[in-house]
UniProtKB/TrEMBL annotation:
It is a multi-pass membrane protein. Gene3D superfamilies: TonB-dependent receptor, beta-barrel domain, TonB-dependent receptor, plug domain. The keyword rRNA-binding does not apply. SUPFAM superfamilies: Porins. The keyword Isomerase does not apply. This is TonB-dependent receptor. Residues 46-152 form the TonB-dependent receptor plug domain. Belongs to the TonB-dependent receptor family.
Length: 719
């Protein structure tokens, strides 16, 4: 990797030197964009020593996404994995995973408190209320705290417009999806407001038992008390219900028999988030804000992934579960930013307090497994039926009070022209006071950590710059993992319940070097990042033969790769975007089993499953001069091959996917159409299997070719 970087750097600097004489004053427009996420304050990207990307309002508007993953996947180095009905996994400097290594923010505030991570948190987002999206890749725990390890995604909501605006639209597809959306706002005197609502409904889709509905409402009010003081209120309420069709077996996948094995599994949520922020500018060099917030979240499931079936023990029976996870949060965060003339110094400092009481329970279901014909040891399930529910046979039953406190600070200085140094640190303390009804225990656990980062930006020319940084990541185990019974214990078994009290926080150390340059009079813009990250005590899920999950937080892992992005605008009619990543995710020291009879004792040196080496998203857009207000584009999504299991015996070949989009604006009316999976490719979002001989793969099937149509009316009194 060092050799590759050295060669690229030499080539790049030669190109820079050649172009410097052509137009030294050229600046990359993208690099002048203001980012908020990276430093918790308005900062130019070229002054930020991290890999960060911004998805603009124009890109969001032209994508016309039915789910937010269609937008976020346009970011180099990011693979947001759709698992149906806006449910998702994520891969940013990590394999495709549901682990708590990503921080999801809404206007800079975490959607979930630390310790209650949910990989599906973004399904609560209202796509019709997003102004832009910022994605930071790599650990930024020194500013945003735990879980900001693989990446941080900040969704910036729409602000009240100066002039009255209103828009509404309808979107449908050929498989029973319908969406109604409306938004509007204005500013009257010192008060501005914006309201956005969305209602999704899916019925009789291409996958059996896959209906869902989602309703979201967002409201924001800005009160400009004075030119230097603002009071901002932001509230979100949403309800979601989805059938959980689950995975299909290999024969069903290859035959495109998209039949669900269950007709009783579901996921439902109800979420309320509200915040009140007071901002004040003391002068041109000094500003502060204080935010008080409240969250109320209810999540209930009969999850398809919770079905446990063993083809070798008693193949005609299985176990399922029903669970409920509810929490409330009361918190506040304050921050002050101070600039000094001396060395262009800027200091950002803040503190957070969050109190989140949570209740969780899960109980066992007895299921009947109706089998497909097959050889012994290779049988698969055609369908499951509920035989009996056991509310008194709990897999988990606890209450907990989570108290998160944190303090952070960051300093940036400009000692010499074109060189900026940044250092920062943060202390996090998560205290969990719990009562576990299953073993009648109570007590408290504390997870705390100081994390640091240090970096530098050097911009020798107006058209080129490089950066380097060292950063740390920290992620305590989620409490749903700690208080869940270990496989083979508790429930209906004769073995007393055992828990994961000894799970350790995961820590990560990351080193990266990256840069950007602009060529051909700003028509060609490129950026790149090389990273190397090591994890210790990384929380890993071991999939057992009956589809149960065993949690381990031990050993070491390594994550390294290259992220690259480029845009080329040869004329006003064409825009070409290229983005992708090459990465390797490897077990360095990880013990899988203590049993001498097991054929595999450890995973040392093996690649992590669900970790494609290559992935990327590229697009060609055409805006013809001969028909103004028409737009067209072709998008290419690449996901390379990856191992299905942890012992590296079987691979999934990955896929190449193409999408097409077209839209036309006629006066105040916009008409558009998307073709998703243009070539009708047979592919799966994810393929996995257990670490045993004769284990059968499970496929999270992806949709066949789908046509999307929409119409939107946009009204504005803007002068």
């Amino acid at each position: 990797m060092k050799k590759i970087y050295f060669i690229l750097l030499i080539i790049g600097q030669c190109v820079f030197a050649q172009n410097k004489v052509e137009k030294d004053s050229t600046k990359s427009q993208e690099l002048e964009n203001v980012f908020v996420t990276a430093n918790r304050t308005a900062t130019l990207r070229k002054e930020t020593p991290v890999a960060i990307s911004k998805i603009t309002a124009k890109t969001i508007n032209e994508t016309k996404a039915t789910a937010v993953y269609e937008i976020i996947n346009k970011t180099p180095g990011v693979l947001m994995v759709n698992i149906g009905n806006e449910q998702h996994m994520m891969s940013i400097r990590q394999p495709m995973t549901t682990n708590a290594y990503y921080l999801y923010l809404e206007d800079g505030l975490p959607i979930r408190p630390m310790g209650i991570f949910n990989h599906n948190a973004l399904l609560e987002i209202n796509q019709f209320n997003i102004q832009n999206i910022e994605v930071v890749k790599g650990p930024v725990s020194s500013l945003y705290g735990p879980e900001a390890v693989g990446g941080t995604i900040n969704l910036i909501s729409l602000k009240p417009p100066v002039d009255p605006e209103f828009k509404f639209g309808v979107q449908v597809d050929t498989y029973g999806y319908r969406r109604f959306q409306a938004a509007g706002g204005a500013t009257v005197g010192k008060v501005g407001f914006h309201i956005a609502g969305i209602s999704n409904l899916q019925e009789n889709g291409w996958m059996a038992y896959s209906d869902y509905n989602k309703d979201n409402l967002n409201a924001r009010i800005d009160y400009n008390i004075s030119p230097s003081t603002r009071l901002i209120s932001n509230t979100m309420y949403g309800k979601y219900y989805s059938d959980m069709s689950g995975t299909v077996n290999e024969d069903a996948f290859n035959n495109r028999t998209y039949k669900s094995t269950s007709n009783f599994t579901y996921r439902k949520s109800e979420a309320l988030r509200t915040r009140l922020t007071l901002e004040h500018d003391w002068n041109n060099n000094s500003s502060s804000y204080l935010t008080a917030y409240f969250r109320d979240n209810k999540l209930g499931q009969n999850p398809s992934y919770g079905i446990r079936w063993s083809p070798t023990v008693n193949p005609s029976t299985a176990k399922g579960e029903v669970n409920s996870n509810n929490f409330k949060s009361y918190g506040a965060i304050g921050q002050h930013t101070q600039k000094f003339d001396f060395l262009n110094t800027k200091i950002v400092a803040g503190a957070l307090y969050d109190y989140s009481p949570v209740t969780y329970w899960s109980y066992v279901l007895d299921l009947k497994a109706n089998l497909n014909p097959g050889e012994a040891g290779k049988q698969t399930v055609d369908s499951y039926e509920i035989i009996a529910e056991h509310p008194d046979s709990k897999l988990a039953d606890y209450t907990a009070d989570i108290i998160n406190t944190a303090g952070y600070a960051q300093l940036s200085i400009n000692p010499v022209n074109k060189l900026i140094f940044t250092v920062g640190g943060r202390y996090d303390n998560m205290k969990v006071k719990y009562n576990n009804a299953l073993d009648l225990s109570s007590g408290s656990k504390v997870y705390d950590k100081i994390t640091y980062k240090a970096g530098a930006n050097y911009n020798p020319f107006t058209f080129a710059g490089i950066y380097a940084n060292y950063s740390q990541g920290f992620a305590p185990p989620g409490i749903t993992s700690i208080f869940r019974t270990k496989p083979g214990t508790g429930g209906t078994t004769a073995v007393p319940a055992e828990f994961y009290y000894n799970l350790e926080p995961a820590t990560f150390n990351n080193v990266e070097i990256g840069g950007w340059f602009s060529l051909l009079e700003n028509k060609l813009n490129l950026d790149y990042a090389f990273y190397y990250m090591e994890g210790k005590n990384e929380l890993l899920n071991v999939k057992l033969a009956d589809n149960t999950t065993d949690y381990r937080s031990a050993g070491e892992t390594r994550h390294k790769g290259i992220e690259f992005g480029a845009t080329y605008k040869p004329s006003k009619q064409f825009n070409i975007r290229l983005g992708g990543t090459y990465a390797q995710h490897t077990y360095i020291d990880f013990k899988l089993s203590d049993k001498p009879s097991d054929p595999v004792q450890n995973l040392n040196g093996k690649e992590m499953p669900a970790a494609p080496r290559w992935s990327g998203n590229s697009e060609v857009s055409y805006y013809p001069n001969w028909l103004p207000n028409l737009r067209t584009s072709i998008e290419w999504q690449l996901v390379g091959s990856y191992y299905q299991d942890q012992i590296n015996t079987f691979k999934y070949s990955g896929y190449n996917l193409f999408n097409a989009r077209i839209g036309y604006q006629w006066r105040k009316i916009e008409i558009y159409g998307n073709v998703m999976n243009l070539t009708d490719k047979l592919y799966a979002y994810n393929v996995s299997r257990a670490n045993i001989a004769n284990a059968q793969p499970t496929y999270t099937a992806a949709a066949p070719r789908t046509f999307v149509f929409g119409i939107q009316y946009n009204f504005s009194l803007k002068k």
